[in-house]
Amino acid sequence: MALTIFDRYGGFATVRKIVSAFYGKVLDSPLLVHHFEDVDMRRLVDHQARFVSSVMGGPASYSDDHLRRIHARHGITTEEFREMVDLLEETLEDFDFAEADIREVIGQVRRREGLVVSA
Q: How many CB atoms lie under 10 A from the CB of residue 111?
C-alpha cells in the first residue's frame, strides 16, 4: 500500500507547520490580509491544517457543502483565491515538497475554487 502525501511528509505535525508558514505569507499579502483582521488565527490554522491534511490524503475530510457554507459570507474573489493558491504552492516549495506532490495538492485545492469564491 502506497503512503499518502500526508504520510510521506510527516503527518499532522508537518502540515501544521506548513499551514502556519502559509498564513505568515497570507498576512503579508495586501490583497488578502483584510479577510483576517478579526480572526482567531490559532483556530483558523487548526481548521486549515485539517483541510490541507485532507487534500494530502490524511484522515480529515470536508464536504463540498461544508466548504461552500463556510466561505459564502467572506466574499472571496477569484483573484484572492488564486493568490492564496500561489502562496500555498510557494510554501510547499519552501518545505521541499516534490513537484509531483505539489501539483497533486494544488490540483486538489484548485478543484474547490467554485466552493470558495463567492464574489
A: 11
89 in a structural domain = yes
Task: Note the pLDDT tens digit of each residue in 16-61.
Answer: 999 999 999 999 999 999 999 888 989 999 989 999 999 999 987 7
Sort residue 43 into left (φ over 0), alpha (ψ -120 to 50) or beta: alpha
d(CA 85, CA 93): 12
Residue 90 has pLDDT above 80, yes or no: yes
CATH of the domain at 76: 1.10.490.10
CA distance 38 to 28: 15
Q: How far apart are CA 51 and CA 90, in angstroms?
A: 18
- d(CA 61, CA 55) in angstroms, rounded, equals 8
Range of the domain at 68: 8-116
